[in-house]
Amino acid sequence: MFKKIFLVFFFNLLFTSFANSNFEIKARSAILLDFFSGQILFEKAPDLIIYPASMTKIMTALIAFDLIKSGNLNLNDEFVVSKKAGKLSEKGNSSMFIEVGDKVSVSDLLKGIIIVSGNDASVALAEGIAGTEEEFAVLMTNKAKEIGMNNTNFSNASGIEDEKNYSTVRDILLLSNHIIANHPDMYKLFSEKELTWYRTGGDPISQTNRNPLLYKNLGADGIKTGYLSKEKYSLASSIIVNGRRLIAVGSGFQTPKIRSDESEKMFNYGLNNFDLVEIAKSNKNFFKLDVWLGKEASVDTYVKEDIYKTIDKDKINLLKVLINYTGPIPAPIVKDQKVAKLKLIYNEEIVGEYDLLASKDVKKVNFISRLIKIINFMIWDDV
């Protein structure tokens, strides 16, 4: 048997965070992610503590989404609106305009939270799930730690100003990434532009989604705005263009217009300066490898995870994608057996390594066939 290395393909790639000293955003802190590769394309003070305001509601929605997915909560379940929740329907609050004593479905409360940023809906949902908003905030913080939001604490469900309700743009990015990746169907609520609420004792109230990017031709499909007087304007946002998703979070924008323009600027920066390259898709045949003494001469291989990398269009850095294995691989081979390594090499350093697995079983040939193959190999170097 011989150790074999195949050069599959190569292209130009930069692996580190794509800091660009010539690019600037008018925000106190900001971050931009290429969703499929997981590559950070831009960051500015990403770990600065912020008050997330209504971006908090992304976590409020996530708790509900998780419970729905597990079967412990149903969209048709109804919660009674408490005095605490109903009071938030008063003038001066961001609200859905639910009334004290109303029975409101989980589905409607989620729409009120996500589409029109209802503080009243947030509290009603939190109390319905956990009994009190304070207990719900414990669930929120525990979930934050679970997904790696290590600089975050939640003290309420709505994002109303509280020094104990804090985060960072990096953590809000992690949260946005998580909810998009794990709840793609429910996430679609974040792209809805309008909600009409047929309230008790009054005419229906129609409100539009506060995310300004949904009304631009960017491919935006979420996610959540925020505002507090001490933090100014914030926005977690996402676009999907030709199958490529970018997520941006910024906080400390001075005006709504600056928030909108600068978030769009981040997305344009990501699209215009970088390309996303698909290297391998999970559970799809990737490369054939030679087999020794098998009933088939080769076996297809696959990887368990999607592998993407982001290309910096302005830099020439050689990436090699190699398959490294000792072969031909002796039969018998069992489906899902590790048979080779897929290695990503940048500047002579390994920057990614993945197992290549056999796509199917390959049985060993009988004795006579094995003898013939061995003789052919010894004489003709033919496997």
Q: Would you kindly provide a written description of the structure presented here, covering whatever features stand out?
A:
The protein is an alpha+beta fold and 383 residues long. It folds into 2 domains: 113 residues, D-Ala-D-Ala carboxypeptidase, C-terminal domain (Peptidoglycan synthesis regulatory factor (PBP3), Domain 2, Sandwich); 225 residues, Beta-lactamase. Helix content is 27%, strand content 32%. It has 9 helices and 18 strands. The chain has a 7-stranded mixed beta sheet with strand order 1-15-17-18-13-12-16, with no helix packed on it. The longest helix is centred in the C-terminal third of the chain and has 18 residues. The radius of gyration is 26 Å and the shape is elongated. About 2% of the residues have low confidence.
Shape: elongated
Major sheet characteristics: 7 strands, mixed
From the alpha carbons, calculate the radius of gyration and give it in angstroms.
26 Å
Strand content: 25-35%
Oligomer: single chain
- The poorly predicted ranges are 10-17
**CATH fold descriptor of the largest domain:** Beta-lactamase
Label the structural class.
Answer: alpha+beta
- What is the CATH superfamily of the largest domain? DD-peptidase/beta-lactamase superfamily
Order of helices and strands: EEEHEHEHHHHHEEEEEHEEEEEEEEH
User: What is the averaged pLDDT score?
Assistant: 90
- The N- to C-terminal Cα distance equals 10 Å
Count of discrete domains: 2
Sheet with the most strands: spatial strand order: 1-15-17-18-13-12-16
Q: What's the number of helices? A: 9
Total strands: 18
The helix content is: 25-40%
